[in-house]
């Protein structure tokens, strides 16, 4: 049987009503044609031999022209050179007519089809069987139809290319089945599963189904597709498959992973639905607009997918107008009301001129922008658009002012000049120099521009000492233009406060070049941003400027002042929530604090889990480790220490002497292969240095230099030898000459209060990036008596106050935990504490999926690796918890050292979070409400650890809901 090529998508059939009216009329005029078509209506496809066979058998007195007439008739949906397919609506009418014929005649038609299609594809014969079963419903049981549908559903959901092929044919045939068959849920499941595995949208379902049928049908063919996620300062990059070294999330699918992406900072913004195919990556930048209270706390958020070209904010009291206007990259202008809800969109004309210089009237009633050189005004309430006569080129800046009547004040470059058009009069600068920034006061009376050389020029009723100064990057003023502030390229901010006593205030310097300034209405506060996650505020008090810093969850490059001391900042990035089709949720947070907190220790060591391989204890060689590196990395290990190495007296710089290599691990050739394999898989190698037998400082430093020259990622000092402070400082200076190398200090067993003396010298804390100590008694008592000792969580950090910025504790597992269950629990507890857990590689390779999951979560959640830590007071014996926080990210870690399952109730206030939220189980992805009125119930099995992340209120499907 020659089948027509199966289509990739279902085409809607012609109307049944049309065919029900057409075929009876055709039968009166061409009865033989309709009779022949009836005899073929039970066929999946009609080949030329079958067409001739049916004509000769059932219409023996007809001519061959009848075949051609049918071939080109409206009863045919598609025809190729060798076969045809009847129109589905026509075939349904023809089958009903056939059923009215004598039963023996109909049986002969069926027998002919079975005989003709003995060699056809199984799915075609299955289709014809169901057509026949539906022809006489009284003789066909529902069980038989269900069995036939299950056969094809099983074939469609099978793995491999065969399932794809069956799916293609199923999408062709199932929509052509009679409605009585298509009503069955399995008929719909076949279509959904076939569409899912082929990466298509399923056809329209004409019948009501129980909830969950469609999702369940997709799940029959879906598998977990790994998707790589990289958080950047402007948003996310998703890749399928993941690239090495990035966070991986799992989304159900076959060829396509479907993920909803929403900004956590804008809970009311609609999510973006993304379909990511194989060998595809996509960049998802987010533009964020956030409103801050007078004390810098976020009160409102708006987010749009993509990098916005411009953001404008109404600076006064807004009633029914627009508070925010966002110009997207495609030219669309999105308006938002004062409460953040979307008020409307102004799409750009396809292929039209670009829009630029967006601005909003102070009360939000009007907008203005430049489109094709023409100033366009838009009235929000009426939607009226007006084009103004003056032509401006690309450097135009426009603002509105309100003085009894609305008048447009325009500042820009036109006709080769820089012009200030106030409507009633015009000011021009003859020299049309390149312009970097244009600025107008709210009342339009004061104007300023910064030329291409950074020179600030002023037009207005006041004089400014800063005018004419070079390297100015930003300027702003109060709403009434009484006070003004400006910034220089080196970050210095100056303010001219004009009141009873005119004075110039030097506010100091920002740590970066300022991109935007704003000043409060009363002239008391100045705000600045510069492209990272800090909002700098200067309070002008008694002729001086008092600096303040507010942390943001995204990178801000614009700031605006609102009445009452509020601020609006806009920029890119911020935490993003991913939701997969099966309900799993992931929150990805860029490390904004890393951008704003430069530290003098390598960033990668902060919160790193360090796996240890020791000579004489682990029966493994360098070559063994190199060959196993893929599996080591697969379980989540990203840092490995090997050794110990004993320095020699050799000064050879071409290679490391063989006697420095412990015999149980191998020679340096094996180490070279280990290092190459580790770096290829994204694993860092730290070498253990045993200094017990070495006292010459030169020998120690020379050996360390040789290892660093061979590209190891750091050194760990092991053994009982304590170096004095001077030697440690020399070692520190040596490592500072190499990028991103770490020094891990000597093991101390003392309590935090005596850690300085136990380590050997106070200078040790100045030198080392990680100071190692064993929790020993604290952890053992905590696991056995049910109190995770406060010393292990808080006091352990106190001696590090004398350390270099970023230094931290490295925690060793106690040696006294002999029971396997206690060791496993202690490992899980360590993974939730601040600092660097240092554990044997064998414990991380014990095929425990939960430990691998915890390692992954530590990498993906900065609160678990870099956040602060405080104990959650719990009264249950054996149950203890800590709260980790990094920026806006809050994670609760609960451990149950008791013998019984325990449950506790948690509110946002318990976790130090304002307002209602949700609690996300990081292990299984379930989400429960967590409010002060409805506490979240946290259940932890005996000997288990659970981690939960606090999430904001879920987003709605639209901005107004």
From TrEMBL:
InterPro entries: GH, Glyco_hydro_b, WD40/YVTN_repeat-like_dom_sf. This is Uncharacterized protein. Gene3D superfamilies: Glycosidases (3.20.20.80), Golgi alpha-mannosidase II (2.60.40.1180), YVTN repeat-like/Quinoprotein amine dehydrogenase (2.130.10.10). It comes from the Bacteria. Transmembrane segments: none annotated.
């Amino acid at each position: 049987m020659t089948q027509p090529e199966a289509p990739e998508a279902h085409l809607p059939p012609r109307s049944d009503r049309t065919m029900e009216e057409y075929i009876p009329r055709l039968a009166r005029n061409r009865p033989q044609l309709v009779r022949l078509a009836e005899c073929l209506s039970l066929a999946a496809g009609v080949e030329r031999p079958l067409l001739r066979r049916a004509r000769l058998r059932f219409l023996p007195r007809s001519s061959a022209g009848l075949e051609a007439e049918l071939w080109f008739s409206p009863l045919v949906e598609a025809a190729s050179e060798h076969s045809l397919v009847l129109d589905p609506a026509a075939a349904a009418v023809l089958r009903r007519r056939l059923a009215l014929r004598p039963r023996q005649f109909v049986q002969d038609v069926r027998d002919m089809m079975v005989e003709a299609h003995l060699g056809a594809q199984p799915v075609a014969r299955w289709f014809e069987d169901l057509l026949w079963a539906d022809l006489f419903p009284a003789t066909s049981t529902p069980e038989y139809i269900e069995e036939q549908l299950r056969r094809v559903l099983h074939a469609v959901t099978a793995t491999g290319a065969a399932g794809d092929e069956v799916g293609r044919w199923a999408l062709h045939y199932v929509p052509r089945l009679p409605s009585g068959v298509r009503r069955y849920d399995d008929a719909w499941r076949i279509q959904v599963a076939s569409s899912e595995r082929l990466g298509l949208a399923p056809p329209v379902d004409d019948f009501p189904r129980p909830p969950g049928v469609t999702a369940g049908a997709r799940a029959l063919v879906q598998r977990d597709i790994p998707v790589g996620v990289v958080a950047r300062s402007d948003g996310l990059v998703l890749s399928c498959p993941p690239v090495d070294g990035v966070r991986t999330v799992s989304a159900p699918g076959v060829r396509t992973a479907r993920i909803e992406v929403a900004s956590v900072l804008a809970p009311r913004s609609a999510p973006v639905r993304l379909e990511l195919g194989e060998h595809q990556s996509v960049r998802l930048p987010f533009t964020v607009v956030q409103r801050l209270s007078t004390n810098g706390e976020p009160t409102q958020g708006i987010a749009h997918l993509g990098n916005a070209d411009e953001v404008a904010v109404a600076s006064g009291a807004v009633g029914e107008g627009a508070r925010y206007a966002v110009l997207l990259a495609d030219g669309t202008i999105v308006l938002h009301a004062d409460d953040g809800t979307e008020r409307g969109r102004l799409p750009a004309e396809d292929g039209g001129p670009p829009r630029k210089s967006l601005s909003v009237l102070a009360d939000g009633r009007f907008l203005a922008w430049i489109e094709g050189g023409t100033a366009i005004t838009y009235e929000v309430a009426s939607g009226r658009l007006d084009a103004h006569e003056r032509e401006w080129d690309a450097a135009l800046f426009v603002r509105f002012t309100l003085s009894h009547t609305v008048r447009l004040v325009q500042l820009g470059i036109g006709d080769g000049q820089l012009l200030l058009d106030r409507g009633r009069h015009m000011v021009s600068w003859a020299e049309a120099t390149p312009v970097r920034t244009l600025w107008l006061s709210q009342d339009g009376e004061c104007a300023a521009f910064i030329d291409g050389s950074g020179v600030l020029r002023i037009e207005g009723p006041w004089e400014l000492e800063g005018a004419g100064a070079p390297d100015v990057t930003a300027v702003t003023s109060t709403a009434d233009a009484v006070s003004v502030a400006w910034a220089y390229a080196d970050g210095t901010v100056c303010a001219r406060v004009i009141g009873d006593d005119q004075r110039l205030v030097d506010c100091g310097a920002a740590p970066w070049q300022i991109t935007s300034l704003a000043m409060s209405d009363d002239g008391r506060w100045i705000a600045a941003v510069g492209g990272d996650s800090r909002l700098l505020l200067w309070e002008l008090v008694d002729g001086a400027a008092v600096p303040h810093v507010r942390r943001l969850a995204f990178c801000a490059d614009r700031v605006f002042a609102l009445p009452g001391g509020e601020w609006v900042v806009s920029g890119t990035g911020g935490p993003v929530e991913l939701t997969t089709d099966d309900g799993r949720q992931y929150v990805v947070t860029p490390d904004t604090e890393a951008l704003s907190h430069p530290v003098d220790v390598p960033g990668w060591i902060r919160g790193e889990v360090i796996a240890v391989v020791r000579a004489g204890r682990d029966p493994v060689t360098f070559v063994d480790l190199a060959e196993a590196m893929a599996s080591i990395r697969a379980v989540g290990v990203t840092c490995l220490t090997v050794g110990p190495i004993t320095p020699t007296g050799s000064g050879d710089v071409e290679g490391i002497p063989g006697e420095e290599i412990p015999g149980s691990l191998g020679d340096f050739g094996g180490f070279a292969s280990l290092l190459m394999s580790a770096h290829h898989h994204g694993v860092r190698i730290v070498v253990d240095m045993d200094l017990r037998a070495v006292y010459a400082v030169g020998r120690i430093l020379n050996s360390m230099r040789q290892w660093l020259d061979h590209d190891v990622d750091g050194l760990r000092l092991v053994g009982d030898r304590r170096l004095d402070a001077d030697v440690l400082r020399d070692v520190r200076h040596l490592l500072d000459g190499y990028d991103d190398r770490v020094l891990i200090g000597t093991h101390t067993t003392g309590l935090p209060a005596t850690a300085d003396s136990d380590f050997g010298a106070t200078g040790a804390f100045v030198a080392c990036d990680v100071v190692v100590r064993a929790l020993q008694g604290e952890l053992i008592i905590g696991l056995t008596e049910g109190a995770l000792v406060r010393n292990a969580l808080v006091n352990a950090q106190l001696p590090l106050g004398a350390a270099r910025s970023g230094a931290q504790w490295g925690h060793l597992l106690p040696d006294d935990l002999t029971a396997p269950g206690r060791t496993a629990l202690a490992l899980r507890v360590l993974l939730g504490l601040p600092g660097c857990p240092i554990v044997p590689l064998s414990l991380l390779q014990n095929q425990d999926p939960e430990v691998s999951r915890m390692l992954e979560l530590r990498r993906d959640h900065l609160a678990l690796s870099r956040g602060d830590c405080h104990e959650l007071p719990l009264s249950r014996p054996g149950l203890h918890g800590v709260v980790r926080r990094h920026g806006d990210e809050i994670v609760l870690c609960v451990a149950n050292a008791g013998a019984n399952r325990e449950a506790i109730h948690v509110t946002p206030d318990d976790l130090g979070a304002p307002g209602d939220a949700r609690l996300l189980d990081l292990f299984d992805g379930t989400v429960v409400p967590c409010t002060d009125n409805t506490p979240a119930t946290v259940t932890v099995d005996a000997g288990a650890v659970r981690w939960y992340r606090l999430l904001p209120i879920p987003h709605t499907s639209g901005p107004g809901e």
